[in-house]
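Next comes a concrete protein, fold included:
___
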Amino acid sequence: MKRFSWEAKTRTGAAQKGIMEAPNEKVVENQLRKFGFTGIVIKEIKAARNPLFGKKVKQKDIVVFTRQLSTMIDAGMPLIQCFDILANQQEKKTFKEILTDVKGSIEGGSTISEGLARHPKVFDELYVNLVNAGEAGGILDTIMGRLAAYIEKAQKLKKRVKGAMTYPATVMGIAFIVVAVILIFVIPVFAKMFKDFGAALPAPTQFVINLSNFIVGHHGLNLAIIGAVLFGIYFVLKKYYATAGGRRAIDALFLKIPVVGPLIRKVAVAKFTRTLGTMMSSGVSIMDGMEIVAKTAGNKVIEEAIYKVRQAISEGQTVAKPLEESKVFPPMVVQMIAVGEASGAMDVMLNKIADFYDDEVDDAVNNMTALMEPFLILFLGVVVGGLVIAMYLPIFKIAGVVSGQG
């Protein structure tokens, strides 16, 4: 997909401009004409070619840059001087070169948003569109402050969810290592000892020994086969998820999983309301806002629901009605948005919903962690304890035989 900057006039003659992703200029023009724009001027935004620009920049660095730029603009400093100072004080080589490139674009006559749009891996569509709205409205310093606050809150939300996944992943990883060590190094010792006894082994013990033999047998060939099978399953699932149907099916399944599904839904609501609220309060139209929010939804089912809402709004419906019909968003969210529409303060209401759902995500994460603990303990007990018991069953059997003979 290519990126285009556009300028046009509304039916009332008001000038508007923005950034849009599309395969070609014709698609952008058709889309704008569908919304009633005239006098359309479209220009393709060429991406930077330096391979360094493809490298990631940490969100923390972007937040610091955004806040500093906001302060400097508010102080009345020229834009080129702002970017020159920020680039020179930047310690990260990649980010320094990006800021220098943006400064060069501005010196060449481009707007800030067009310069930032050359680096989509660092400054996403939301960032670029908000900066564009700030430039158009002459409130760039205010917009940069809102952007910094938005990114910080979005990062906190992301960290909460990642934190919830870290604990079970760590426990499962340790359990895997312990089981692998037992099967590769401990079980063969017991197997040799039991072989010397010459007696038939209990079924659980024989199963564990056979599993150990399979893993360590043929100089690691079987272990390589297991690894290849697991990688094959991962590769097939990844390819399937890359298709529209596969992503929809897997994302729909995630939404139905107990505990996990409600958490995903709450994260999506918090992200949707926070992003749309920030964009609307910054002067971005609801149609452009919905487009960007849909792309950043993170779940195909929710993404499609937002696109349907956007389509309904373009046909003259309110925001609340299609949201309710989507069945994705909770009734409370729909009702609060309806109140926000009626009072003309939907951006304020959206931010209030986002604050509420940030707390809801916190509670959901804590509840999920609390529920996982007993299941993880049970899992460890069954797997590790099962291996230990299986190995001691023959010893108990021999002890019983010896005791009977005595």
In short: Residues 346-405 form the longest helix (60 residues).
